[in-house]
Amino acid sequence: MGNTTETTNEIKVKWRCPSNIAIVKYWGKKSVQIPCNPSLSLTLSNSYTEVEVTVSEKTTHEQVELTYYFEGEENQKFGNRVAAYLADNIDSFPYLNMVAVTIQSKNSFPHSAGIASSASAFGAIALAMLDIAYQFEEKEIDDDFYQKASELARLGSGSACRSVFPSYSIWGEVDGIEGTSNEYAVGVHNIHPIFKNYKDAILIVEDEPKKISSTVGHSLMNDHPFAEIRFKQAEKRTKELVDILEEGDIDSFIQICESDALTLHAMMMTSTDYYLLVKPGTITAIEKIMQFRLENLVPVCFTLDAGPNVHVLYPEKYQDVVEEFINTELKDTYKKVIFDHEGEGPQKLSI
Ligand code: PMV
Predict the structure, then answer these.
(1) 82 CA from centroid of ligand 1 (Å)
(2) How confident is the model over 113-141, as pLDDT tens digits?
(3) Atom 10, ligand 1: which residue's CA is nearest?
(4) The domain containing residue 337 runs over which residues?
(5) 24, 50, 78, 121: which one has the fewest Cβ atoms less than 10 Å from its Cβ?
């Protein structure tokens, strides 16, 4: 069974799953975790979650008997969320009726980094739990495995479904792009060399937990005055971005990337219960990036997640000049910076 440790009563697997950053953003959802619009993201490399999952004999009569550790300490709060997720999806993990499960989880990035960890966490959990289901059924890991893992990751946290694939991936049905689905993500395969090993330096402007969760943010799209226009725009942009990634059209990439980040935040600022997540450091960094691009003709751009941190995106061949700019001119805008880049997707690890 490959990298699996097995004693008579115990199966243990270990998976690493990276985080991802959306270029076209998912914002607004229907039941159950169905996106209101398609999204397209870049899978990262250095920002990841690792989970080690052990199944052993049950000691209670609970349907899902889970003990969840985060960085060596039992974490009841996230453990309860994971237990509820496993119970909701018991049909995919039927072995949970018979065995207890222990998850040891850790992130490569500091907790206070303000990086959304649910994408990498649910990516890793779905992969590991499905791997165990496959072992009980004596099935080999194949392409269907990743599709199913993506679907299960989505049910834990929407954006997690894109982390199951390397490089770039799309989640959500796009008219005219075969294979796309609202249920799971699919990889984007024709990528121009300029977009390979694409860099993402994450400027941690603020490291406090955000006051408004993404769940609340998504729900505010339900009666948002601009919702329908936004959903159509995101589908159009996703479609255009697929061609842009293939052709290596970096100017159009920058245009869509920055505009979509600002549109996401504009949606927050214009919902009925409006709110604001950007901070002064966010605005200063954005202005400096745009000015640096104009003055130096370097194709660097920004995107934002649902928070104040700024993702600085640039091609590998401009790495030195952009990193120098980040370390000097942007220095006062952030508390720390994480240098990351396009990654190769999840990995099963040996134990
Ligand atoms: O996956 P969720 O529910 O945390 O939502 C994530 C939404 C954004 O990060 C803002 C955009 C995206 O597509 O990842």
Answers:
(1) 18
(2) 667 689 999 999 999 999 999 999 999 99
(3) 306
(4) 194-341
(5) 78
Closest CA to 311 of 200, 188, 191: 200
HSE, CB side, 13 Å, CA atoms: give it for residue 329. 15
Check whether residue 202 and residue 112 sit in a common domain: no
Q: What's the rounded mean pLDDT across residues 71-85?
A: 96
**Is the full-model pTM beyond 0.70?**
yes
Q: What SS3 class is residue 332?
A: helix
- Give the number of the atom of ligand 1 that is nearest the alpha carbon of residue 157: 1
The confidence score (pLDDT) of residue 1 equals: 39
Q: Residues near ligand 1 with C-beta < 6 Å?
A: 22, 25-27, 39, 116, 118, 157-159, 214, 264, 305-306
Q: Say if residue 249 is in the same domain as residue 117.
A: no
Tell me how many domains the chain contains.
Answer: 2
Which is it for the CA torsion 156, 158, 160, 161, positive or negative? positive
